[in-house]
Specification:
The complex is a heterodimer.
Chain A lengths: L1 E5 L2 H11 L5 E7 L2 E7 L5 E8 L5 E4 L3 E6 H8 L7 E6 L5 E7 L6 E7 L8 E2 L7 E6 H12 L4 E6 L3 E8 L2 E8 L12 E4 L3 E6 H7 L8 E6 L5 E7 L9 E7 L3 E2 L1
Antiparallel strand pairs in A: 1-5, 1-7, 2-3, 2-6, 3-4, 4-19, 7-8, 8-9, 11-15, 11-17, 12-13, 12-16, 13-14, 17-18, 18-19
Helix pairs in contact in A: 1-2, 3-4
Chain B lengths: L1 E2 L8 E2 L1
Classes of the chains: A mainly beta, B mainly beta.
């Protein structure tokens, strides 16, 4: 059987909220190392990879690997029933048909029990190579969300260009064009707002704003986002889960999107 | 005109 308790139900709630609009059904693979979910959106344009290591759980027991086929919007509906400071326990029997979800308030005076029906999901799994990227930009996740939203006003494709000086987001559409440049700033008052750029060569790639917009729904998870790019390969937009700022969290939520190419 | 490649064309199937 599988049983795991997360001290903050809100973390799981934010994770599922972040992906439920992009991916409807997904398999959460549970093993002794933790919980993982990999899924593509319905048009197979982007990929979500969620990794929750056992370290981030208060209690984690998994006797045998289990696959939990989950309808994410429905899971999100149940997670919304948790209180802000509740813990959450997930339980599933081997080959069980349901996922039990139990919320407990801090003083354990309120216990809520739910069951979510599991599904058989036929999803293909992809091997994501562990690669170094030409450019890694770390910035405020709220700022990235705002830029993507602002770019969407003007068009559907955004160019992200990066040099040592800064990162430039550009868009053009029927009503005009716009761009926003963020300069590399290591010495700002608020550490969370710093823009740091590690890069080998300047790079500029074009991305569909619709998908970047989906990715930024993960902003409440972490004040910082890491954007990694290399020529002709998918961009990675990554958020730490259950960690602080830039430090490695005990989990991560990464989104992959291929750059647009000229026909 | 730009084309959107599928993500599956970048990663190998497991």
């Amino acid at each position: 059987m599988f049983e795991a308790t997360l001290q903050k139900a809100s973390t799981l709630k934010k994770v599922i909220e972040a992906i439920k609009d992009l991916v409807t059904d997904g398999n959460i693979e549970v093993s002794e190392t933790g919980m993982n979910l990999q899924a593509m959106d319905s048009s197979h344009v982007s990929l979500v990879s969620l990794v929750l290591h056992t370290d981030m759980f208060e209690h984690f027991r998994c006797d045998r690997n289990v696959t939990l086929g989950i309808n994410l919007p429905n899971f999100a509906k149940i997670l919304k029933c948790s209180g802000n400071d509740d813990s959450v326990t997930l339980k599933a029997q081997d080959d069980g048909e349901n996922l039990a979800i139990v919320f407990e308030s801090e003083g354990q005076e309120r216990v809520s029990e739910f069951e979510l029906k599991l599904m058989d999901i036929d999803a293909e799994s992809l091997g994501i190579p562990d690669q170094d990227y030409n450019t890694n930009v770390k910035m405020s996740s709220a700022e990235f969300q705002r830029i993507v939203r602002d770019m969407t006003v003007l068009g559907d494709t955004c160019s992200i260009g990066c040099t040592k000086e800064g990162v430039k987001f550009s868009v053009s559409g029927d009503l005009g064009q716009g761009n926003i440049t963020l300069r590399q700033t290591n010495s700002v008052d608020k550490e969370e707002e710093a823009v740091t750029i590690e890069m080998d060569e300047p790079v500029e790639l074009n991305f569909a704003l619709r998908y970047l917009g989906f990715f930024t729904k993960a902003s409440p998870l972490c004040p910082r986002v890491t954007i990694s790019m290399s020529p002709d390969v998918p961009i990675v937009v990554a958020y730490n889960v259950g960690g602080e700022k830039d430090t490695e969290g005990a989990g991560s939520l990464s989104f992959y999107l291929a750059p647009k190419i000229d026909e | 005109q730009q084309q959107q490649p599928k993500i599956s064309s970048f990663f190998n199937k497991k």
